Amino acid sequence: MAADAPSPRGDAVYLDHAAATPLRPEVAAAMQEAAGTAFANPSSPHAAGRRAHAALEDARERILAAIGCNTSGPHRDRLVFTSGATEANRLGVVGAAAGLSGCIAWSARDHSSVAAAAQDLVDQGWAATSLELDERGAVAAAGRFVEALPADGRAILCTTPVCGQTGICDWREPLPGWMRSHPRLLVHADATQAVGWAEVPFRDLAAMTIAFAPHKFGGPRGIGGLVVRSGIQIEPLVPGPQELGLRGGTEPTCLAVGFARAVELAVAERAETTQRLTRLRDLFESRLATAAAAAGLGLCVVGKTSDRAPHISTVAISGCDRQVIAMAADLAGVCLATGTACASGSSEPSPAVAALGMPAWVTHGAVRISFGRSTSEQDVLAASERLIAVFRGIATGGLHPAPRHR
Ligand code: PLP
User: Fold this and answer.
1) Which ligand 1 atom is at minimum distance from the Cα of 86?
2) What structural domains and CATH numbers belong to the chain?
3) d(C-alpha 51, C-alpha 36), whole Å
4) From ligand 1's centre to the CA of 112, what distance in Å?
């Protein structure tokens, strides 16, 4: 393992970076400094409070600038700090809908926190549109939702630029044109797996709320953010004077400082990290493919021919159930996931994989392996070797009784 990646168990290889990444030393150092200089309540009017307030606002501006939003002028965007991406998704969807009626569209690509927020609006009487996925794993026909918008009410279109389960990218829809021609349309983007991996042209996209969280790219847990583009009105979920009235409660200045450092590093290193992890992901998948072919097993890499972010590989091996793989992999020294962390342990297959209409052995067998900045080639080689043994053991019935799916 690379030096800054703590090993969760002995020599276990950590390949669950889409769930959480190790805190980067540079980020920890920035937070440590802020803990000394900016510990006060940023709302306190005295000198120490003013120092904390300045550090908080500096972090906010740096994060907005790093992801290409406007930090000054009449079209200045806002960033609301939240507890993570789950809360940011809820604030972006439910907060934008407060007191209004309208229609909302989302898809199986979206994280469960987006789906849950959308479902709450539907329970309150909003019209729902479930967007289908095409065979590449992208939303098939969001244009139809936009074309059929009723003459009044708010319309919210949820989009996930990088799917948290499969890594499949989808941000090439003609969003700017739709936003221009439908002023009532608000796009909520869950960019949690995109920041640091995919270059999403937020600068060109106006009517948006954008959710993300730094623990996905070397930053601290316990903080996330919702960008509210200029001109968008939202209501707080927790009222209070902080965060421009959009989220009550004392702001976590040290976490915000760590967030800013993490996002700046992730964006600055994006090209290099993307190139390195694409190579490692391809190496991992080709090792698995060779071993599967030699053992006469079927291998499916979900989204193999789609545009994918480099850090996620979702794979299934014929005859292997995902829950059994996850347990056996853990015992063999590989930390991986059956799906997004909040759904781990669920007996239901991931909606994002199920929606692709693949054979049952893929839907029920797919596990998510995710790489990060601290992943080394040695990690990938060790993990693929261990996983190949796990797959062989399960498929031949020698390791665990695997539920069989045709
Ligand atoms: N959205 C996506 C796409 C995710 O992958 C995740 C977490 O895995 C979340 C939202 C939720 O993030 P958080 O754990 O910060 O609430």
Assistant:
1) 16
2) 13-23+270-395 (3.90.1150.10), 38-268 (3.40.640.10)
3) 11
4) 9
- DSSP result, 61-106: HHHHHHTT---SSTT--EEEEESSHHHHHHHHHHHHHTT--EEEEE
What is the per-residue pLDDT across 134-177, written as a single tens digit (0 to 9) for each? 989 988 888 888 888 888 889 999 999 999 999 999 976 577 77
Task: Report how far ligand 1's centroid is from the alpha carbon of 192 (Å).
Answer: 6
Residues of the chain with pLDDT under 50: 1-3, 6-7, 400-406
The pLDDT score that the predictor gives to residue 2 is 47
Closest-CA residue to 335 (of 297, 374, 364)? 374
pTM score, two decimals? 0.93
Atom of ligand 1 at shortest range from CA of 162: 3
Shortest-distance Cα residue to atom 4 of ligand 1: 164
**Are 130 and 158 spatial neighbours (Cβ–Cβ below 8 Å)?**
no
The CA 4 to ligand 1 mean position distance, Å, reads: 23
Ligand 1: residue whose CA is nearest its atom 5: 164
